Amino acid sequence: MLIKTNNQGFVHTIPSEITPEATYQSRRNLIRLMAGGVAGAALASWAAREALAQDWSTPGQHPALARSKTSVAGALSLEKVTEYQHASTYNNFYEFGTDKADPAKNAHTLKTSPWSVEIDGMIKKPGRYALEDLLKLSAQEERVYRLRCVEGWSMVIPWVGYSLSALIKKVEPLGGARYVEFVTQADPKTMPGVGSRVLDWPYVEGLRLDEAMHPLTLLAFGMYGEVLPKQNGAPLRLVVPWKYGFKSVKSLVKIHFTDKQPATAWNKAAANEYGFYSNVNPDVDHPRWSQATERRIGEDGLFARKRKTLLFNGYEAQVGQLYAGMDLKKFF
């Protein structure tokens, strides 16, 4: 076991051999211990582990963001953080091109100031919120999440932001609101990929209201302790760690509350391949490839044995109750 202190004074304990499978199994063991009546000691031990994140350095590429450590259960992965150079250059952001390297090359054209987000629909307090106001709405936290792409690769990324629920509570959804629709920027002048026919622009995604309210659902303004790079969805984006990456929309410009399930971009493009829920599930394959395993970018070579994919990307203990009784193969 390694003990490190980072440049901000936080002491981090890093188990020397933490794997996704080991972390997942620890969670399952905790659930069994709770059922056996020894939850007190087990919870205390687990809380101590969750409170300790690994050490990593800010890249110094963008302005730093003030943030505190999170107390949200499951929000600090103990796995090795993906190197910044990989997380910032290997991206899916089709508004800037379909190759993984295109966003890092082309996103410099994106104008992120001034920026605002329109919030409307079935809420008591509709309005247009400036980025500056959203930044101050709630205290920002550092969270280290696993990211799993539907294409079969994964990363571990430290984000900076706060639970989307803070914003949702402020706008006060009406009783009939059941879904939240998210619309992203689609400016052909600054986003060359918007002129393509790959998707129906603008890019739209959606969550059930209870999913959007879950404390793990993050409104992110930064990563690696700094302001988001443009290729990673500046100036603000969504991060939903138990779902495939395309659900976590980038460069957000509108949030709409509705009683109808939103028609989302990839579901409209290929409904048989991309369901509305898109929860990470090793038992539900993509029609063209298995989802049982994944490759960690920057760690696993092309010929290395792949890692096992975990149900809900390893967040089953936190979010499994949202889907109790659902047929996860039908509602994929």
Could you provide a short overview of the structure?
The chain is α+β, with helices and mostly antiparallel strands and 332 residues long. The protein has helices at 20-35, 39-50, 84-87, 102-106, 131-136, 164-171, 209-213, 265-269, 316-319, and strands spanning 2-5, 11-14, 68-69, 116-121, 127-130, 141-148, 153-163, 179-184, 204-208, 218-223, 226-227, 237-239, 252-258, 293-296, 307-308.
Describe the structure.
The structure is a single chain. It contains nine helices and 15 strands. It is of the alpha+beta class and 332 residues long. A hairpin with a 5-residue loop joins β4 (116-121) and β5. 37% of the residues are buried.
What structural keywords apply?
332 residues; alpha+beta; 8-stranded mixed sheet; 15 strands; 22% strand; globular
In terms of topology, how is this protein built?
Elements (H helix, E strand, L loop, with lengths): L1 E4 L5 E4 L5 H16 L3 H12 L17 E2 L14 H4 L14 H5 L9 E6 L5 E4 H6 L4 E8 L4 E11 H8 L7 E6 L19 E5 H5 L4 E6 L2 E2 L9 E3 L12 E7 L6 H5 L23 E4 L10 E2 L7 H4 L13
Parallel strand pairs: 3-6, 4-13, 7-14
Antiparallel strand pairs: 1-2, 4-5, 6-7, 7-10, 8-9, 8-13, 10-11, 10-12, 14-15
Helix pairs in contact: 1-2
- Low-confidence spans: 1-53
- How many whole angstroms does the radius of gyration measure? 19 Å
| Proportion of residues in helical segments | 10-25%
What shape does the CA trace take? globular
Oligomeric category:
single chain
